[in-house]
């Protein structure tokens, strides 16, 4: 796992750079909920459920970072346990 991936994704602005579903590509929104396999983004068009698998995301907080969605599959508490 990439250690640069933020432990807490909720609240971050996310941009879908690549996705197996062409309708999800270029979706931009704030992450409002995270499950094991999905992120829920609050967009200008409402909430979008984004599967983490087969997605490449760009997070913009203090530092912009591109992340393969497969690297963040799992619950937030599971990511914390992997780092310990």
UniProtKB/TrEMBL annotation:
Segments traversing the membrane: none
Database matches in SUPFAM superfamilies: Rof/RNase P subunit-like
Record keywords: Cytoplasm, Endonuclease, Hydrolase, Nuclease, tRNA processing
EC number: 3.1.26.5
SMART domains xrefs: POP4
Major localization class: cytoplasm
Enzyme's top EC category: hydrolase
Subunit structure: Consists of a catalytic RNA component and at least 4-5 protein subunits.
Protein name, as recorded: Ribonuclease P protein component 1
Species annotation: uncultured thaumarchaeote Rifle_16ft_4_minimus_1872
